[in-house]
Amino acid sequence: GHERAHAMPHLGASTTEAEEKCAVMAASQLDTFLQFGNIENSVNFPTISMEPSEGYRIGISNRNVAGSLGGLLSVLADRQINVIDLINKSRGEIAYNLIDIAEPPNDQILADLLAIKTVIGVRAMANEIT
User: Fold this and answer.
1) Distances (CA, A) of 10 to 5, 13, 20, 39, 42
2) Three-class SS of residue 11?
3) Burial tier of 40 (Cβ tally within 10 Å: 0-12, 13-18, 19+)
């Protein structure tokens, strides 16, 4: 090292105030994910956020390969389900989609989406988005 420089370790959230702020931030981001499917500060998933619209939201994770999004939308179109809004983001080999639809998704629709070979997981948000 240099005689006028002192190496200091990164202390991160080592103070009580920093630990509290980190806990509040993590809880807030988890709440937003559970309510709306938005993802922030994830290690494995892309950052994604979509403002609530009318309708019902589905969150879908899939392998980031050509044709995956088309397959998801085909399942909905085959059942005459209108897509109100959607966003698709990818990070490496993973993609994540938020899709707002006009009617509540039933268990069969969720199962059909999950049956797509490239789909990793499907989750309907608990309530109608208002």
Assistant:
1) 15, 9, 18, 26, 21
2) coil
3) middle
Q: Which domains does the chain have, with CATH numbers?
A: 16-124 (3.30.70.260)
pLDDT digits (tens, 9 = 90+) for 95-106: 999 999 999 999
Cα distance between the two ends of the chain: 58
12-54 pLDDT, tens digit each: 667 788 788 888 888 999 999 999 999 999 999 999 999 988 8
Q: What is the pTM of this model?
A: 0.82
Q: How far apart are CA 120 and CA 61, in angstroms?
A: 5
Q: What does each C-alpha distance from 9 to 14, 29, 85, 120 come to in angstroms?
A: 11, 27, 45, 39
Count of residues in the chain: 130
Cα angle at 14 between 33 and 45, to 5 degrees? Answer: 25
Give the strand pairing for 94-101 and 56-63.
antiparallel
The arrangement of strands across the sheet holding 56-63 comes to 83-91, 94-101, 56-63, 119-124
**Residue pair 54/84 in contact by the 8 Å Cβ criterion:** yes
